[in-house]
Amino acid sequence: MKKKQTINWFKLLFSLFRLVLKYPALSLLVIALGLGNYAYEAKVARPALLYQGEPQALSPKNIDTWFRVLRNHGFIVGYSDLRGNPLWVEYALTPIAENSRSLKRPGHFETDWRGINRVSHESYQKSGYDRGHMAPNYAISHLYGKQGQADSFLMTNVTPQKANLNQKVWQRLEEVESKYFAPSFGKVWVLTGPVFSGSVERLSSDWKVEIPDAFYKIYITEATPTHKPLALAFLIPQTVHGKEPLAQFVTSIDNIEAQTGLDFFADLDDSIETSVEATTDGQPWHLQEVSQLPPRY
């Protein structure tokens, strides 16, 4: 078997530095390419994966809410190297065609080369926690194909979840969003991530990964000239048994912002944002009809 070739980044950077010294005009090209790439990321690529602005830390001084933005195929992540968790993940859901091809589920999660802390598949072994997807395999693989699925199996999209949460309540919510919410509205934006409270607890198998106390999911429809956006938010603790009604976990976006220290949908008109983020009304989503669907496992 051939050994995987890895890039020696130090040697590469040193070689580029020597080239710049030898050919000063090259530095202008490098700067221009760098600025062009930054402009593309900031003005085109990232906004296409976000609805009404990138989530922001409510207090820039709170290092627990610092994150780096990682763009993937079909979804985008605000990743905390300090906590070894994505603090938020956002993706757009549209109806999945009945004849869309199911891809074989990968058997292994991959370390994200962009992650400074190098969390790996093995980091969760014998920890008592599942590797919980934030951008879900089912929806991402069906809507965004093989590359989207591969990106969803990066460890920067993963956070520790108890089995009853991951395999039951969370699985039910992911199924509802794909099979009911998206078909009902045509397009739904999803923001999801962990909630940390109280003392810091980390995986016994890898201290780089902090264990969340709960998880949130926020659904929002796009505004139209005649209709304001509709929103529905959930806050689900790790301690669930698995068969609880989904309606039991409905909360407001305002509460999730207070719990996470993050500000969502900052680009919304203030009057609309105030109304949308305070709502706890599941009726427009027909939540009661799907609230007690059984878990698959």
Task: Give an overview in words.
- The protein has 297 residues and is of the alpha+beta class.
- Helices cover 32% and strands 21% of the residues.
- The protein is built from 7 helices and 13 strands.
- It has helices at residues 9-22, 24-45, 137-152, 163-185, 253-260, 270-278, 287-290, and strands at 56-57, 68-71, 75-80, 85-93, 130-133, 158-161, 188-195, 202-203, 206-210, 214-220, 231-237, 250-251, 262-263.
- A 7-stranded antiparallel β-sheet has the order 2-3-4-7-10-11-12. Strands 1-13 form a two-stranded antiparallel sheet. The protein has a two-stranded antiparallel sheet with strand order 5-6.
- Helix 1 (9-22) crosses helix 2.
- The longest helix is centred in the middle third of the chain and has 23 residues, at 163-185.
- It is globular, with a radius of gyration of 20 Å.
- The relative contact order is 0.13.
- Residues 1-6 have low confidence and may be disordered.
